[in-house]
Amino acid sequence: MPVVLRAEAADGGPSLLLRSWTDSDADALVEAYRDPVLRAWTRLGVPDAEAAAHWVEVQRAGWESGTRLSFAVLEEEPGGGGRLAGNVVLKRPEPAGPAGEVGYWTAAHARGRGVAPRALQVLTDWVFESFAAGGVEYLELMHQVDNTASCRVAEKAGYGFERILPAVPPFPRDGHLHLRWAAGGPVRG
Ligand SMILES: CC(C)(COP(=O)(O)OP(=O)(O)OC[C@H]1O[C@@H](n2cnc3c(N)ncnc32)[C@H](O)[C@@H]1OP(=O)(O)O)[C@@H](O)C(=O)NCCC(=O)NCCS
Fold it and tell me: Which domains occur in the chain, in start order?
């Protein structure tokens, strides 16, 4: 049964609908990846329809294996339907392990309206609710030190700064590790 999540409209931004990626998203995905900022901060390019179809297939396979649970984030429109605004993903290379990693991007046209932090908050709540019995204890969020917009998303979605990560190929600069613990996780003094 496909998972569909929602975030209420807030802070001047529209309500958001999160659902799994489909082939019908290919054109909007290619359009989003024309943005040089998105290409600069994410490792994969999606230059054309063929690459988009492959990307969607990777997301579908991720849901099947439980290792990559990604959601297309749509800005809901008054008459129904929605415009692609971004992506949020939970990565669990070891689906039985205690940790997961989150990632996100927002299409250029939708930035600056809290889309990523709101979508991330909804994803985080869903993960801790759905996978508590499966043992997810904490979620990691990593970004390069100079990605200040991403650092703000982490802070707004309640992912506390944990430590600096040294630069390791393919990442040319140091990074930040942020963490968010499930309810009942360690209390920081
Ligand atoms: C980082 C990113 C996901 C933020 O998404 P968003 O939906 O715009 O999030 P917000 O609206 O909360 O804005 C976050 C910060 O972006 C910056 N920002 C604000 N308006 C902006 C705009 N119109 N365009 C670009 N950045 C803007 C601000 O620093 C803002 O922080 P503030 O709220 O303290 O002012 C988005 O900029 C993006 O997709 N960047 C490229 C991909 C990327 O970096 N992904 C994360 C990899 S770790």
Answer: 5-181 (3.40.630.30)
